[in-house]
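Handoff note, outgoing to incoming analyst
You'll be picking up this chain. Sequence as last confirmed:
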Amino acid sequence: MRELRPYLIAQRTQKEQIDPAIGDAIWRPWKLVNIPFAEEYPGGRQWNHNAAQLVYQPADDAGDHPHWSTILDHCGDSLDPELQKLQWAADAGIASGGDYLKAWIAAMVREPFEPLPYLFFFGPENSGKSIFHEAVALLVTKGVVQADRSLTNQNDFNGELANAVLCVVEEKDIATAKGAYAKIKEWVTAKTISIRRMRTDSYTQPNTTHWVQCANSRQFCPVFPGDTRITMSYVPPLKHEIPKPILLERLKAEAPRFMRTLADLKLPGSEGRLRIPIVATDQKRRAEQDAMTPLEKFLVEHVERVANQKSYLHLNDIREAFVSTLSEAERQTCETDKLRPILERLPEPYELGRDGKGTKIKGVKWRAESEFATAT
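Most recent structure output, in case you need it:
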């Protein structure tokens, strides 16, 4: 505000008009906002300064965009079998992985404040994983950032995420980074995000981040049992490679027609925290199993949830049953005391209670096929 008076003087503003102009600015200030893909002055004395904008407007008429379709079909190939089993996908006309990725992009562009699944593409070297986010980046003027440091650094600096629309993690092993999965859980679904830059105070802004990770190895993405945020897709080797400069030019030429498709696309109804549901592929289920501790695997195999909250099992009984399945050598290495922390970190935590025998888990029973199935 101190700079306003010299500015008005420099603009040859009449002296008697300067104080009223300053008073009006104080009384009715403009609010600096970030609304991706909205006009610069969206109303309500808001200034949408320097926000990401769309490079291409939708074509007047629908048309083909074969190179966009080929990329999406290729990157989403492993999603096809699962999508064909899902009722929400059938209701939305999503019959393939390509359709799913197209809906993901449409939701990012049309509803940038809504959270979307964390997309993880993995596959052989030079299989075309990265072209997904490189193609999406052609559609926007800014807001595409390399975000691996935000997930892996231990000091929580994440300034690159300010006003970001598409956050890319490329060939980084974030599965071994302490705290990376906790950040994914927060940033994928949170309505706001705290931005912390070096040597500045942190501040909170609406969350417009949407996440894509690409890697050769499946192990580079942290996936834990019960994950509800990550869609994992295996990208197979290319059958026919187009030189990237030529491919990018063809994508740009088709972009207005692709934008028309995105504008007209029917999006699925929102069923949970994410605007579009995740897809649980066989690769993801295997990744979840690989990430399980022996104790977690025991829970999955022997314990099931039931609607009746009067049904319960005691933690000590579960622990003793688990120990009984271990060899003498395994008992020396398995952390049998970690049952309670495991239960509390699950996406849908079990409800715990107490009685005369100690801590119990409500709403569970031994699976019928379990050797430990007994009346409780």
